[in-house]
């Protein structure tokens, strides 16, 4: 795993990567470049040399053979995690509560009812990030786009379970994905490894 502050000073993208952000605004180019730089640092931890990580037509990173990974960026940071084998998903969010008008878009009634009223925005952010991480772990295997209502999350300290509400590819309704949650330097980081 590697994390970097977003900047426009990292090495240039490999040729096959540049097309993914052709025409993007400078801030998006910086996020993308920083994410790819973090991914190369994470790959180096597994013994891989500097390699291109192009994007598929659906923008999913194309990892070296036998590697799965995830890249995320938010609030001035980019993180990447890689591993040999099964899929993984990663999300990072600025540590701040979400506005109440967003809560019903992210959480179902049962999820909201379990959250403490005085800190609901903070817990909804955790659920949002957990669902993002789980989705990013599942998407490479299913290539199916889903909404927040497709999963229900139960938080338990630094761990969570994201449960599918309906079948998705070879994952059946009720399938549970176990993940971890961590607060780091004003950020919330979530991850799911299948």
What does this molecule look like?
- This protein has 194 residues and is an alpha+beta fold.
- It has 2 domains: 2-85, Alpha-Beta Complex (Ribosomal Protein L22, Chain A); 90-193.
- 29% of the residues lie in helices and 28% in strands.
- It is built from 5 helices and 8 strands.
- A 5-stranded antiparallel β-sheet has the order 4-8-7-6-5, with helices on one face. Strands 1-3-2 form a 3-stranded antiparallel β-sheet, with helices on one face.
- Strand 5 (151-156) and strand 6 (159-164) form a beta hairpin.
- The longest helix has 23 residues, at 120-142.
- The chain starts with a strand and ends with a strand.
- The model has no long low-confidence stretch (mean pLDDT 94).
Keywords for this entry:
alpha+beta; Ribosomal Protein L22, Chain A; three-stranded antiparallel beta sheet; globular; magnesium ion binding
Please describe the topology of this protein.
Elements: E1 2-5, H1 15-18, H2 26-45, E2 67-74, E3 77-84, E4 88-94, H3 103-106, H4 109-113, H5 120-142, E5 151-156, E6 159-164, E7 176-184, E8 187-193
Antiparallel strand pairs: 1-3, 2-3, 4-8, 5-6, 6-7, 7-8
Short description:
Residues 87-160 form the 4'-phosphopantetheinyl transferase domain. With 194 residues, the protein is of the alpha+beta class.
């Amino acid at each position: 795993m590697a994390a970097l502050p977003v900047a426009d000073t990292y090495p240039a993208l490999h040729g096959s990567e540049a097309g993914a952000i052709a025409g993007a605004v400078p801030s998006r180019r910086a996020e993308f470049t920083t994410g790819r730089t973090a991914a190369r640092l994470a790959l180096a931890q597994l013994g891989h040399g500097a390699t291109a990580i192009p994007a598929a037509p659906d923008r999913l990173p194309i990892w070296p053979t036998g590697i799965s990974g995830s890249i995320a960026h938010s609030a001035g940071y980019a993180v990447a995690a890689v591993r040999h084998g099964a899929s993984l998903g990663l999300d990072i969010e600025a540590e701040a509560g979400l506005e109440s008008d967003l809560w019903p878009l992210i959480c179902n009634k049962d999820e909201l009812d379990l959250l403490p009223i005085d800190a609901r925005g903070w817990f909804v952010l955790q659920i949002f990030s957990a669902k993002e991480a789980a989705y990013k772990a599942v998407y490479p295997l299913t290539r199916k786009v889903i909404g927040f209502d497709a999963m229900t999350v139960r938080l338990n300290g630094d761990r969570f379970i994201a449960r599918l509400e309906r079948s998705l590819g070879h994952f059946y309704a009720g399938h549970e994905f176990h993940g971890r949650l961590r607060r780091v330097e004003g950020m919330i980081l979530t991850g799911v490894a299948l």
